[in-house]
Amino acid sequence: FVGHEVDFVKGVVAMDGLPPDDRPEVCFAGRSNVGKSSLINALTGRKGLARASNTPGRTQEINYFTLGPEKYLVDLPGYGFANAPLPVVEKWQRLLKQYLSGRATLKRAFVLIDFRHGVKKVDDEIMTLLDRSAVPFQVVMTKQDKVKKWDQDKILEQVRDALNKHPAAYPEMVVTSSEKGDGIPTLRAIIAGLD
Ligand code: GDP
């Protein structure tokens, strides 16, 4: 699903705006600035594609992209904006819950974790929501190139410990660097294998 097979479909603000659930989909979630746009761009080989999701007005939407003719890639808004107005946060949380619990074709959620920071409280909350919604999820570590090799093990251990508490979590993480390209083919293969 590289290049021309990937296109922006639409931004969704309410459940009735979702495209027909006629194909499997995967979603990407993560704190703001985790490197989600960079990862989606690296994954699809189309620079600037996920920028569509980061333009003002689009940031609170569930953004749909096609991955070839047979799948959707769903970009969920970045969470953890401390300064967003409460009604905005609440509206977004409601939509997120409805989406996660009501989308039968959602095959897997990828939860992005910044390698430098490990699992934060908001990440843990999203994982709990995924547990409750019975959505299997897999952690994708981002920005591996920013962490020295000898610091990586203890962070990965913290993440593993956190994942142990979540029944919906896959134990295997995907370690990536959008900058260097590490882990991108692996992630692509995982998505290609989901039906
Ligand atoms: P988003 O808010 O989650 O969409 O995050 P972005 O993709 O916009 O990335 C946030 C910042 O982290 C930007 O300055 C990116 O250049 C940087 N970044 C993202 N991925 C990587 C990576 O793999 N390595 C490095 N060194 N920087 C990255």
Automatic annotation (TrEMBL):
GO terms for molecular function: GTP binding; metal ion binding. Keywords: Cell cycle, Cell division, GTP-binding, Magnesium, Metal-binding, Nucleotide-binding, Septation. InterPro entries: G_ENGB_dom, GTP-bd, GTP-bd_ribosome_bio_YsxC, P-loop_NTPase, Small_GTP-bd. Its cofactor is Mg(2+). Residues 22-195 form the EngB-type G domain. Gene3D superfamilies: P-loop containing nucleotide triphosphate hydrolases (3.40.50.300). The keyword Magnesium applies. Pfam families: MMR_HSR1 (PF01926). PROSITE patterns: G_ENGB. It comes from the Bacteria. GO terms for biological process: division septum assembly. HAMAP family: GTPase_EngB. Belongs to the TRAFAC class TrmE-Era-EngA-EngB-Septin-like GTPase superfamily. EngB GTPase family. Necessary for normal cell division and for the maintenance of normal septation. This is Probable GTP-binding protein EngB.
